[in-house]
Amino acid sequence: MSIEALWSIRFGAQVGNSFTPLPNAGVVIAETGRLLGGDAWMYYVGKFEHSGAGVFSVTLDVKVHHQTGGVAYDGRPLRDLQFDGQVTLAAGHQSARAVLRPRAGGPDLHAELKRIAELP
Q: Of 42, 83, 111, 113, which cross-links 7 as Cys (Cβ 3.0–4.6 Å)?
């Protein structure tokens, strides 16, 4: 089982089994324990490690690269954020769900991921 691939990522709020997407989405590359990605306003750099059947622990630093036009997932102004969390692969490993907890406190950030390409 490998999480190593190019993934699309869509952020949102999770209430029960219902996922409500936020307007921002991006891409993430997972390769050799590293996470690299970004969207229109922010870039992501982090690490992952396998922690169980289809589950990966992640740490992620999220930094602002373009200040105009966006707000953070919690409705506050864009700012640098740090998260710890986990990614759980779905059967077939073509999609995944993530729960990211901000290190500074606040609401969890949820995400849906879809594998869009294998790495060369």
A: 113
Total domains present in the chain: 1
For the chain, how many helices (H) and strands (E)?
0, 8
Burial of 16: CB neighbours in 10 Å, binned 0-12, 13-18, 19+: exposed
N-to-C CA span, the chain: 17
pTM of the model: 0.90
Per-run averaged pLDDT (10 residues), the chain, 120 residues: 90 83 91 96 96 94 86 88 96 94 94 96
| Residues 38-48 pLDDT 10s | 998 999 999 99
Identify whether the C-beta of residue 42 lies closer than 8 Å to the C-beta of residue 78. yes
Distance CA 100, CA 104 (A): 12
